[in-house]
Write a structure and sequence with these properties.
The protein has four helices and six strands, in the order ββαββαβααβ. By secondary structure, it is of the alpha/beta class. The strands form two sheets. Strands 5-3-1-6 form a four-stranded parallel sheet. A two-stranded parallel sheet has the order 2-4. Helix 1 packs parallel to helix 2. The longest helix has 16 residues.
């Protein structure tokens, strides 16, 4: 059975806490039952290059494991950062879907 997990960070994702953010995502990806992680950015106020790099590393790890990682509910100010880095095209940012998700 495929398990979709929703992860909801909050506040700022930047150099100070990007490693912790990345570790959380990698830990979720390492769970055998987890096939897809949806990251809900609705509570994220700011994201810097360290936060972007953490996402890229987690995305590559997901691909390596044959799993999916997606991003939803990005605020306009954070969306600009995704667009400037062109990461929005890689991750395919979308609006939240009404699914039964396990929020962690």
């Amino acid at each position: 059975m495929k398990k979709q997990v929703m992860y909801q960070p909050s506040g700022k994702i930047y150099a100070v806490n990007a490693t912790s953010f990345q570790e959380d995502l990698i830990k979720l990806l390492q769970e055998d039952s987890c096939r897809m992680i949806t990251i809900d950015f609705s509570l994220v106020e700011f994201l810097d290059s360290a936060g972007l790099m953490a996402l890229v590393i987690a995305y590559k790890e997901a691909q390596k494991q044959g799993k999916k990682l997606s991003v939803v509910n990005v605020s306009p100010s954070v969306k600009i950062i995704f667009e400037l880095s062109q990461l929005d095209q890689v991750l395919g940012i979308k609006e939240a879907e009404e699914n039964h998700l396990l929020v962690v």
